[in-house]
Structure formats: C-alpha cells, structure tokens
Amino acid sequence: MKVLSIVGARPQFVKLAPVAHAFSAAGYEHVIVHTGQHYDTRMSDVFFEDLQIPEPDVHLGVGSGSHGVQTGAMLGALDAVLEEHAPDWVLVYGDTNSTIAGALSAVKLHLAVAHLEAGLRSFNRRMPEEHNRVLTDHAADLLLAPTEVAMAHLADEGLADRSVMVGDVMTDVCFLVRDAVGGQQPALPQGIDPANDYLVSTIHRAENTDDPARLRSIVDALNDVPMPVLLLAHPRLVARCAEFEIDLHGGSIVTANPLPYPGMVAAVMHSRGVVTDSGGLQKEAYLLGVPCTTLRTETEWVETLEGGWNVLDPELTSLSELAVRPTPTTTQRAPYGDGQAAQAVASVLAARVR
Ligand code: UD1
C-alpha cells in the first residue's frame, strides 16, 4: 500500500510522527508532502528531527499569505505531485489550510482521501479552522475520528458510514515523549526557574491576535497573573504585536521562542498550569495532568472540560485566579485512547484500499 501524507503546519508534524512510524513498521510505502505553510526552523524542521520523522519527499515551499493565496498556491502545486505519485490513499491531518488544499486536490483527481482527526467541531463559523474541517470531512472518503464525540458529530452530518473511530494520534506521541522526558528537570528559557511555580502560555489564533484591542487585553491579563508566565511566542503573535506596538515584555510575561516538542512536554509537565488558545496544547495539558485555561469561547476537545481540567475564559474575567487554580483531583476517564491510535490508522487504511 502506498500512502501520501500532506502536512504543512506545526501540529500536523506532531500527528505525522506516530503515523509515519506505524506505516514504516507495517512496511507501507509513505510519501510525505510538506506544503511549506510553516517554514521557520522552530515551527518545522525541529519537529522532523526530534520526532524522527523522515524528511519530506516533496516540499511545495508555499509560505505565508492570505487564506486564498496560501490555499490556492497549494492547490496549484499539488495536482502534479499527486498525479506523479498516484497513491492508494491521500492522508490529510487536522484543520489547516494544508488540510483543505490536500483534500480538495485529491478528490478532484479521484484519489481516495482519508481525513485524520475528523469530526471535531467548534460550531464557530468565524474560525478558519472550522471551515477547513467541515469541508474536508464532507470531501473525504474515509473519516478517522479521534473520539466518540467526533463520531457523533459525523453521524449528525450524515457521514456515519464513512467514519471509523481510531483514537487520537497526538496522545500516542504525547505519552511516548512524556515517558522519555519525565524524570528530567526541564531546560527552561532564561527568566523561568523550574524549581518555582510558573505557567506555560501560547496564543496564536486569528480571533485572538488579529484585533489590536483583543490582543492588548490578553497581553495585559497575562501580565497580571501572579506568577511568571512563559509565553512561547508563535510567529503570528510576534508579527501582530510588532504591528500593533504591543510590548510583550513586562509584568509576569517572560517571552521566549517556541519550544521543540520534547521541551514543550517537559515544560508543561513541570508547570503549575497552561493558558492557551491552541487545540493541541489544551489536550496535552489534560493528558499530562496539568490544569488549562483556554482563551476561547468554545473548545473542540470538550472532554478536557470534565472535572475542571480545562476552563474556558474568553472574556478574561478572572484569569489571574483561574490560571493559578489548584490541580483538579477528579479522575480522568481516558477519552483520547491508549496511545495506540496510529496503529489503528495503519490497519484501517490497509483494510479499505480501493
Ligand atoms: C495555522 C493553522 C491553525 C493551526 C496553526 C498552528 C490555518 C488556517 N491555521 O495557523 O489551524 O492551529 O497553524 O500553528 O491553516 N509565520 C511565520 N513563520 C512560520 C509560519 C507562520 O513567520 O513558520 C507567520 C506568518 O506571518 C504568517 C502567520 O505566521 O502570516 C500565520 O501563519 P499561518 O500559516 O497563516 O497560520 P497560523 O496562525 O500558523
């Protein structure tokens, strides 16, 4: 069996890692296409190195741009690549512009498409990611869902007969890396002492970064938190703060570059809590047993809200208390699987080759 994976943004490299290893163990031919949506070394190359993902076979080098320009450039470049490789499956991941471009390109060429992390919904139609996931699910031939909740969303949209529950591949990699880095004191950026309490924060979503008043209120709220906040600054955040003349230094915030995946897992494990708008990081905090405060009106990973592990605080009303709340004592019920999802992906694809 030959599978062609299309990835382009940081969270997709994390999902690709366990899948690439499972395909390699099963002896499948695997072609990796990197769209170039994320191109900074810290956003891309370090993930391939640290997570031992084979080098991409094809690099489209698309880079940044408006949604139409970025997605269109991917579409323009993908046809020839897909025709040349003629895979049994095109596999797309998550909810980025690289996901929708890959799915659309493949279905137009009558290639079988599988969507990994299918069925997640925020029901917020102002999010670019929501359009990407809904459209990809409806275009794809096979929907690989991470949770029962995702399966239910797919059924509600009439997609039950194309859906298979495989579990969450990010859990596979999170558990592996947790076990590898677990006992070590993390090497944290300057200004954060791992022996004392600190929070880990990331902010990158368009709805939080692209409106200057909103971004300023988030930065102000983080600066008021009563312990150091390690803000791992995504390039979009840095660019918008420069544009709006918002100073990321001062108050509680300690700004640093994005961390490689093992460093991130270690930093979260040793932290007092996480404040984020990232989907993946909310779930990683939950899996690592750390309380998370999410600066959004909703979450796709609704299971994290149970027992108070994750709390939504879009209005920033009580961030300085919420962010430093004690770790919940409630038991988690493992809604994201047992860390074997990538193997399930490999078997399901093999069983359904057309
Ligand atoms: C994208 C995804 C989002 C995902 C996120 C993970 C879409 C619509 N959004 O958002 O779902 O959660 O990736 O990070 O696909 N930039 C750099 N260097 C890079 C990458 C980006 O400087 O390596 C800057 C550019 O100024 C760019 C901006 O970041 O314009 C935003 O990048 P983009 O790929 O458009 O979206 P993300 O915000 O990263």
Give the spatial strand order of the biggest sheet.
3-2-1-4-5-6-7
Structural class: alpha/beta
What's the mean pLDDT score?
97
Number of domains: 2
Please name the fourth-level CATH homologous superfamily of the largest domain: Glycogen Phosphorylase B
Q: What global shape is seen?
A: globular
Helix count from the secondary structure assignment = 14
Q: What is the annotated CATH architecture of the largest domain?
A: 3-Layer(aba) Sandwich
Could you tell me the number of beta strands? 13
CATH topology annotation of the largest domain: Rossmann fold
Quickly name the level 1 CATH class of the largest domain: Alpha Beta
The sequence of SSEs as H and E is EHEHEHEHEHEHEHEHHEHEHEHEEHH
Biggest sheet descriptor: 7 strands, parallel
Straight-line distance between termini: 10 Å
Helical fraction equals: 40-55%
Q: Which runs of at least 5 residues are low in confidence (pLDDT < 50)?
A: none
Return Rg in Å.
Answer: 20 Å
Describe this structure in words.
The structure is a single chain. This protein is α/β, with parallel strands linked by helices and 354 residues long. It folds into two domains: 182 residues, Glycogen Phosphorylase B (Rossmann fold), CATH 3.40.50; 145 residues, Rossmann fold, CATH 3.40.50. The protein is 42% helix and 15% strand. It has 14 helices and 13 strands. The protein has a seven-stranded parallel β-sheet, sandwiched between helices. A six-stranded parallel β-sheet has the order 10-9-8-11-12-13. Strand 4, helix 4 and strand 5 form a beta-alpha-beta unit. Helix 1 crosses helix 14, helix 4 runs parallel beside helix 5 and helix 7 crosses helix 11. The longest helix has 19 residues. 48% of the residues are buried. The mean pLDDT is 97. Uridine-diphosphate-N-acetylglucosamine binds next to helix 1, helix 5 and helix 10.
